What we know:
Shape: globular
Order of helices and strands: EHEHEHEH
CATH architecture: 3-Layer(aba) Sandwich
Strand content: 15-25%
Distance between the termini: 32 Å
Number of helices: 4
Number of strands: 4
Strand order of the largest sheet: 2-1-3-4
CATH topology: Rossmann fold
Oligomer: single chain
CATH superfamily: Response regulator
Amino acid sequence: xxxxxxxxxxxxxxxxxxxxxxxxxxxxxxxxxxxxxxxxxxxxxxxxxxxxxxxxxxxxxxxxxxxxxxxxxxxxxxxxxxxxxxxxxxxxxxxxxxxxxxxxxxxxxxx
Length: 111
């Protein structure tokens, strides 16, 4: 399985890459939001592990752009955010966006 890790923290990124590779995953690791968005336009991944706090383009903007391109690649969100409003976005809004995009995709499939 090929996945994209988008994480700007070097210590966390190194640990995640090492652990994922030990488990047999092929990992591309990017530390910049704009680079990640460009890579997602050009490459296919089975999973994206996405930090929300990134330089140049935040994780929510990457996720929004990904879904606007009708890319349904599963995304695992990493965040250090811990306020109630931040948790609301990660646990309520993101799944709702994904659900709504899947429902719209299903509606567009001919019978």
